[in-house]
Queue: 2 jobs
Job 1
Amino acid sequence: MTTMPDTVPLARHYYETRREVLAAGGAQLTPWYQLDPEERAVAVTEAVIIQEAVRRANEEHAVLMAVLASRLPAADEVTAPG
């Protein structure tokens, strides 16, 4: 299971990574420490969305692995060739 960082650190890292990627393409965004409270709140909300998306992806993965495991024969049921 993936351990997620707290919302604000995740928001800051996501925002700064996004800012760096966009800067490579020529777009300039305000650095995290200069965001006004409303902009920072938007970034934190995006982090909450990311956390939920990761939670759902992990849940889906667990379900798919359980289904796959239920379809595979148990080790003691596998017969040797020949």
Job 2
Amino acid sequence: MRSILNFLRMACLAAAIVLLLGAIAPAVAQFGSRSIDVQQVYVQLPDLPLENQYVSRETGEVAQHNTLVSRMVQYHLLVANRIPTSRLDWKLTMADYLGANEWMRPGLYPGADTFRANPIEGDRAAIEQLNRAQRDALIDVLVGLFSASADAPNVPPRQVPAEPNAAQQLPR
């Protein structure tokens, strides 16, 4: 009898996990294709450090377009797997850079395998040099840009008739 109860308990737990994962996965997956022009961040925050002095292993040249913000976005989306439109998630990413939240694995950091020197320490130092207002401004700009780039749902726009017909009028 106990084995049957244990089996039923495990089956219910497994079903609950499958249902929960099915409900969560599509919401996260839809953010995978969103992107922003990171140069817009630097336009809005011109004092933000570029940190684009790293030399490519492949070409031996400085990768000027690979910046602190581009790596931070890659870390946020691909390594930490966080939502780009969530202010709280960006604050968690900021806390990662400041060493106050999750440990950032150097081998997984964007650019670790493409540059001669891993940019993680320089990027963390650059974020640590920002004051709270600058970090908050960076978060605001990132959330704003990702929110603006969010695709509208695949629902056709609602047509608003010029004059309501008799079927649409409310009773008086």
